[in-house]
Amino acid sequence: MKINKKLPTPPNKRIALYVKPAAERALRNGHPWLFEEAIQRQNREGQAGDLAVIFDRKDRFLAIGLYDPRSPIRVRILQQNDPAAIDQDWFRERFLEASRLRDSLLETGTNGYRMVHGENDGLPGLVIDRYDHNYVIKLDTAAWIPRLADVLPALLSVVTAERLVLRLSRSAQSIAKSDIDLLDGEILAGSPLKEPALFQENRLNFEADLIHGQKTGFFFDQRENRATLEKIIAGREDIDAMLNVFAYTGGFSLYAARAGARNITSLDSSQPALDTAVKNFELNQDIKSISTVSHKLACGDAFQVLEIYGSEGRRFDSVVIDPPSFANRQSDVGRALNAYRRLTRLGLSVLRPGGLLVMSSCSSRVGAEEFYTNINRVASRNDRPLSELTSTRHALDHPVNFPQGAYLKCLFAIAD
Predict the structure, then answer these.
(1) What is the total count of domains within the chain?
(2) Residue numbers of the domain that contains 355
(3) Separation CA 122–CA 98 (nearest Å)
(4) Element (H, E) at 340
(5) Same domain for 245 and 325?
(6) How far apart are the C-alpha atoms of 168 and 390, rounded to whole Å?
(7) For the whole prediction, is pTM greater than 0.90?
(8) 187 and 49 share one domain
(9) Do residue 102 and residue 60 come from a single domain?
(10) CA R_g for the chain
(11) Taking each helix axis from N to C terminus, what angle separates 223-234 and 251-259, rounded to the nearest 10 degrees?
């Protein structure tokens, strides 16, 4: 496949960095980031995408990574302890390792998943999501932009792709446009994408907007939690009405319908997302339980709608609450915990006694134990103590290889 855009040759200049003792220890232990304040000195100023070689106090090699002068994470580490040439061959080996790790997903009727999970696959700031034969490359730092000329051929040597789509973080968008006229949503290889991409997850059909959708178009990290919900509902005869809060494109709703829930309400603040949820149900009409389900949509603020449902006396057999991250910075943690407490209270207010509550968090700054403790405390204070069925963390395609990489947690519990 031909790459559509002429990309600049990756820079071959290197920066020599010397770091503080604490940073030395962190790098030797495999941490993927070097922060600005950990640098003691460097031999020259660098540009985004330059390779930074990090040495210890005895001039011994520690690591090499991508330099970003605009980010507090000054270097994203690619190789530690042993020197290596960071070139197409190096990237190809990383992509091969990541691909092999996920091979088993294809056996489950799944061709939509995360192929590269950034730091946790040894490629900090780079995410690659697969949607059947479409691959979305998400750059969280501008440091990756000058490396695309090596990254794209290496990727195409490993996967069979119809097209490559570029998605950029906000911080990288202006730099990409000014430096090499790259735009968020641009097709890097292959033909234009004129309609949503189709893919399968656990033998359910979905579509996703790879150009304008949130993140890369879909939230693959909840795949196993959706499957867990389906298994629980299928094993019970008392779950008929389900409310999916922060439903986005209806993933949890679709799994619940296949399991046998007969009355499902998908609640989200985005009407386009809910419209896609309707299309996802239409894509699975060959499944009888989905073709006959009553699927209602509610567009509005989750907190306000839950308040209204509670005041109206509406009750559901299951309530799934999968909110966005409320803590983008450490200073947001208190506000995030308050939001989780409020959502727990509101969720319980519309959940019948003995109903199933599913609460999820995608914030790495809120630890799992703190999250679960908060939920249980609110439930007890509202005389709705919880009996935990299970709690889950990360799926196969979202590995965790350093502490800050752990962000996802989900609780499944029965409320008195």
Answers:
(1) 3
(2) 219-415
(3) 9
(4) helix 333-349
(5) yes
(6) 35
(7) yes
(8) no
(9) no
(10) 23
(11) 30
